Queue: 3 jobs
Job 1
Amino acid sequence: MDDYLIAVFADRIQAESAYTALEQASLPTPEMAILGKGYKSINDFDFIDPPARRRTLGMMTWLVPFGFLAGLSFNAITKLDTFPWAGTLGNQVLGGVLGAIAGMSGAIVAGGGLSLLISDAPPYRKLLAAGQYLVVVTGNSTGLAAPILKQMGPQSLRGSN
């Protein structure tokens, strides 16, 4: 999700009033949602960035084998004896395993996988569990929705920009 705006309200009535105010301002309904008891759950809305997951897994499919081959080749060329107990073939395989680990960590960093670890979802899960409601606006409507939601007096208002 690129642009988003999340308003936290103490109860269902306030959240519904905010949603109605957004509807009256002619904001597109597909870009708005209420999260809470009786409405969408955080799992339905998916705060976690699925494109980052796909990019990370896509990069892993070629970086892990490439890292393995690079580590194996490097060890074979340099004839390093890092693990004397493993012998020549064992050192090459362990070099490949270490290269695969390096490839995996590179895929996580370059593919945006760190955003999967640092997600907004856990704090919002706690708010929903405490009986609060979230009004979420996504897409190009966030700029129009911000002043409307501020007028509704949310407990907090947070956006991607």
Job 2
Amino acid sequence: MSEAQTPEKSDGLEATLVGYQMAISLWIHHSEQVWARFNIMFVGHSIVIAAIGLIATSQRPSPLLAILLSFLGFFLCVLWFVLIRRGNEYAEYYTLTARELEERYLPAHVKTVSRGGLFADGKSVNLEIQGTKPLRMSRDARLIRVSWATYVTVLVFAAFYLIAIAMQFLP
């Protein structure tokens, strides 16, 4: 039996592969949860905004209720921001965990997660498909990262609520 195929090395590689697969699975599962939370919060805010709109356009508007709903919406924005931030930090943890396992323990030709960071930063990565195929993320796709787009979405909702609150106090 060669040095590369001893039972100890084989078991270590197998354990590493299991850990790597688990890190990738957790990353995928967590990402799905983050988007599910995002969608739920988006729908929730849409309902709150619709209620504020109905109150404002009703024949008997209730400024107090509009203010309360606006404060509720703003509070939900703070909560949403924290959930997104936590989700992004977990995603980074899972990504870096998978990358660590990939770079330290897997064969050198396994570079899926490692190259992903370079690709996201706009650097060219080489794929070995019928020779070498360079691949680079386009400039427009790199303009705004998904995490920042989600923060902007929360800020837009928060701004709406602050404006709705301010409008209740303006003559």
Job 3
Amino acid sequence: MDSRQIEAYLEQIHTKDPVTGDHCNKAAGYALQLGRKLNLSREELDILEQAAVLHDLGKLKVPEDILLKPAPLTRAEYEVIKRHPVWGADLVAGSAQAGSRRMEVAQVIRYHHERFDGQGYPEGLAADAIPFLAQIVAVADAFDAMTSDRPYRPALPLPRAREVLLQERGKQFNPDLVDRFVALIA
């Protein structure tokens, strides 16, 4: 995917919801920090960066009254939100003729809300069945979400966010990735 296309997607996200737009950029920064710590190849880092910056692209299809709701979501609203990884992956993949790089980016986007314990979405994948780069995005995404103000709650202090990551080792997140990420932000 070329940089103009990524920028166009980011502009659409930021226009619909500036908070999500900023979050995508910050989550991508955290994901790249972790990817570098893991000594990923240049190609893997490129895929990781594109996927991380576009991980919430599917939120373009979420109605604004749900996306921008300043209160907890209902079960039905949450079910709509849970569709965003698939919608984003579909937007990036585009067509059956999409190149392999685009498909790899789309795969990371699709699976960034899977959980290490298999309780995530959209498919309930667990552990090594979750693409590794998606596991990295999951940690970066959650950390930035926790440490940023949201319409429905204030940001968590850094020590509390670290504590949550550690509590979710082996549950929501790959334990090794949590350990490495916590060491980065310590």
